[in-house]
Design a protein that fits this description.
It is an enzyme of class 4 (lyase). InterPro entries: Dehydroquinate_synthase, DHQ_synth_AroB, DHQ_synth_fam, DHQS/DOIS_N, DHQS_C. One of its GO terms (molecular function) is nucleotide binding. The protein is α/β, with parallel strands linked by helices and about 350 residues long. It has 2 domains: about 160 residues, 3-Layer(aba) Sandwich (Rossmann fold), CATH 3.40.50.1970; about 180 residues, Up-down Bundle (Dehydroquinate synthase-like, alpha domain). Helix content is about 50%, strand content about 15%. The strands form 4 sheets. A 4-stranded parallel β-sheet has the order 4-3-5-6. The chain has a 3-stranded mixed β-sheet with strand order 1-2-9, sandwiched between helices. The chain has a two-stranded antiparallel sheet with strand order 7-8. A hairpin with a 2-residue loop joins strand 7 and strand 8.
Length: about 350
């Protein structure tokens, strides 16, 4: 697959990715090279990564605990302290080898250590490949509130090697696939149709490439989310609140990002139908496709009340107003919509039916 040029770097694929990384390391002569991993990527991905680097470079490994619950400032401080203990300087490089938690947190740690060192993302989950590792968003959560602390800063390059997907279970693959489905809903009806036909996660290269192209085209036009880039938040206003709530102590199971966003997209498609005229056929199509792939979550009335309360912390809010991305039709979005609150509970009722 051809490389994709981003605003501040390049996305490389498969064997070319490793070649370009080796070349980059030789040309830049970094003082030290660090690899950030969690216990899963340390076991399943790091050996393959090292093997493909040919043993020609010295790497220091920094390991953190996996999971969204560890994407916080305390873990970030651990990374900063380890970098300092290992004599990292401003000419050092951090390679983030892992999923969205690793690329988000690692990018933020690198962007702020000694006022910024270079970093490179090597996503190993489907979610990170198609979403988290590109676009320059870095950051950590504030308690259970998603991505409240962070900066925009782009990696030197992103290496997408779909072979790493073989290390994932079905649930993780589904989570990433939800973001791909979002790309179809917000930007391309034909891509949405193609994704509906997917019944296994083998030979995903072309679809991953199309998702990356869609997201990159949007980010290139609006790098800091002033306008167009907000469409990438479809499903995320409710989805982030649901994900945050599921991480608290309650009766809900902890949800992966894509699982929560899938619910959010059903809810926000319902709001689109009620406020912007998204056709009932397309609304039912969206609900049906997500329900095929994701187990339905049983929300109590108390759960719904608490999730709605969390909406006030959404990053897209302005002057106390909750802003939604809605669909006029599949592939056509409108940003910054203020939805009547009485529709929130109706949306959950629609999801439950």
């Amino acid at each position: 697959m051809d490389a994709i040029t981003t605003k501040n770097g390049t996305i490389y694929f498969d064997d070319e990715a490793y070649y370009k990384l080796r070349l980059h390391l030789k040309e830049n002569k970094y003082s030290k090279i660090f690899i950030l991993v969690d216990e899963n990527t340390a076991k399943h991905c790091l050996p393959e990564f090292r093997a493909n680097m040919g043993g020609k470079f010295n790497f220091e490994t920094i390991q953190i605990n996996s999971g969204e619950i560890n994407k916080n400032i305390e873990t970030c401080m651990e990374v900063w302290q380890k970098l300092s203990q290992l004599d990292a300087d401003r000419r050092s490089l951090l390679i983030n080898l892992g999923g969205g938690v690793i690329t988000d947190l690692g990018g933020f740690a690198a962007s702020t250590f000694k006022r910024g060192i270079d970093f490179i993302n090597v996503p190993t989950t489907l979610l990170a490949m198609v979403d988290a590792s590109i676009g320059g968003k870095t950051g950590v959560d504030l308690g259970v509130l998603k991505n409240q602390i962070g900066v925009f800063n782009s990696p030197q390059m992103v290496l997408v090697v779909p072979d790493y997907l073989s290390t994932l279970d079905q649930r993780q693959l589904n989570s990433g696939f939800a973001e791909m489905m979002k790309h179809g809903l917000i930007a391309s009806g034909s891509y949405w149709t193609s994704l509906k036909k997917v019944d296994s996660f083998e030979n995903m290269d072309k679809l991953i490439y199309e998702s990356l192209t869609i997201k990159n085209d949007i980010v290139m036009q609006d790098p800091e989310e002033k306008n167009l880039r907000k469409i990438l938040n479809f499903g995320h206003t409710f989805g982030h609140a649901i994900e945050s709530y599921s991480l608290e102590e309650n009766n809900l199971p902890p949800l992966l990002h894509g699982e929560a966003i899938a619910i959010g997209m059903i809810l926000e498609a319902f709001l689109s139908n009620r406020t912007m005229g998204l056709g009932m056929y397309q609304l039912e199509d969206i609900k049906s496709e997500f329900n095929k792939r994701f187990k339905k979550v049983d929300f109590t009335d108390d759960d719904v009340e608490k999730i709605v309360e969390l909406l006030k912390f959404d990053k897209k809010n302005t002057r106390g107003s909750i802003n939604f991305v809605v669909l006029k039709r599949i592939g056509d979005t409108i940003i910054d919509n203020k939805i009547p609150k009485e529709l929130f509970h109706e949306a959950f009722s629609y999801y439950k039916d």
